[in-house]
Amino acid sequence: MIKPSTDMGAKMENKYIIAAVSCGKDSLVIPHECIRKGIKLDEVIFYDTGMEFEAIYQVWNQLVKTLDKYGIKHTVLTPKYNFYWQMLERPVNVGKDTAHFGYSWCGGACRWGTTDKLKIMDQYAEERNANVFVGIAADETYRLNKNAKNYKHYPLIAWGMSESDCLAYCYKQGYEWREYTTETKNESVRLYDILKRVSCWCCTNKNLNELRNIYHYLPKYWEKLKYIQANTSRPMKGKGQSVFDLEKRFKLEDSWLASGKSITTREFYTTLKLRLEQEGL
Q: pLDDT tens digits, residue range 205-217?
């Protein structure tokens, strides 16, 4: 078990300090609290995969205004290669029997996008001999990597801020992560009202309920998921759970709910299985 650094002050005065901000609720707290507490902060970095929700870019632009106000440098880092190219077109295992194109979906045991992200961000910090503030909340210490580099520090843990604390803090600062939708009266939805995490819209770590909400509230992103699925043989959520399979499931759910029937019964799952088999899926 890592003992996270709790010293955010004196011992770092002579260090170059970077806050790594994904523009999700947790890491977003760090620059604001550093400013409020008078903690030294030299730079904020944001890694843009190119597959972020539009709301994430809006949040970054909002944060940049605050950073500019306080004279804090901000930098956007990007992958070496285009995300779609790596996912769908990159030659893999060239010259071997297992040769194919594209890494396919990112997430689960195949987190090639995360590997790229950490490599680029770590290299950036190490070139500057920097200490890095990382946004892991006090109630998610299970995410700490036992092999984490010693220049990484976890101020949210030191400050005792949980995930719910961070979200409430960000809402109070005026961040809302709103996306356009026709499914609400005001034609917008806050991402954290329908998703647990606001990481890349194509991440396969999204659970069934999150994907169901994307299908219902964010059809533009659902169409993008369908495009990816049409161009890779690997089902997004595993065997029998391609994006197309899931769409048929969600349509059947809507039909059953509209007629007052439960979608948690054996009857529903039997009907779903037969429906998918009949359609050759």
A: 999 999 999 999 9
